[in-house]
């Protein structure tokens, strides 16, 4: 997340939601995680650029390259030999990070700007094996953080598009009439500033349902084949040209094996 400065009593213009913009992060094969910034129906801003990475997230995965690449798996080498061979070739081996060790917003450096806006979206999608989707749900949140009460007398101007399946839900202390008529986020009591301090205050949430497969930022195909006592698996991904993907992680569930799979070819990093 990036920050923008606002003057007391001023208006900030934020444009969105949009059907397709250009930033995603933290995608996985199960569809969990949808990065902050402008995305499927997200909110972008004219203050500065609120895009790309949620604050406090470590960049632990390789940047996703162009589309049409993949990886092959087999079963030949043992775990230690496999890792040592990758290290010998100059590969960077990333250790598994326990959930408790992942950086959180509370552990991130405190903001120095008087006003900080955080825009986050999450995508939950279920893709059928033979194509098509059975569930496509986008949920987003716009949160505000104000350091001092004197900077809390502000409004945020939202620009949205009329799109099917889009719905908004504002905080109880937001002036709903003002938001519904002019799409301006302001306090219900104009004489009271937004809450100040180190905690963020969610101002508005949105949800989009019923989108089709063409809106997916990333598609993954898996092609296994058995030869004797070995199994060869080709996993290919194709990224949409409409998105600039960062920190993409594809998790592949494997059965319990005595030997680690042998990666014959990969575009990116494997751990």
Measured on Cα atoms, how large is the radius of gyration? Answer: 22 Å
The sequence of SSEs as H and E is EEEEHEEEEHEEEEEE
Structural class: mainly beta
Tally of individual helices: 2
CATH architecture of the domain at 11-65 and 102-212 and 242-255: Sandwich
CATH class of the domain at 11-65 and 102-212 and 242-255: Mainly Beta
Number-wise, the strands total 14
Proportion of residues in β-strands: 25-35%
Subunit structure: Oligomeric complex that consists of at least the alpha, beta, beta', gamma, delta, epsilon and zeta subunits.
Domain MHD: 112-271
GO biological process, one term: protein transport
Family: Belongs to the adaptor complexes medium subunit family. Delta-COP subfamily.
Task: Describe the fold and architecture.
Oligomeric complex that consists of at least the alpha, beta, beta', gamma, delta, epsilon and zeta subunits. Pfam families: Adap_comp_sub. Residues 112-271 form the MHD domain. The chain has a four-stranded mixed beta sheet. It has a four-stranded antiparallel beta sheet with strand order 11-12-4-14, with no helix packed on it. A four-stranded antiparallel beta sheet has the order 5-6-10-8, with no helix packed on it. The protein has a domain at 11-65 and 102-212 and 242-255: Sandwich (Immunoglobulin-like). It is elongated, with a radius of gyration of 22 Å. The protein is built from two helices and 14 strands. It is mainly β and 271 residues long.
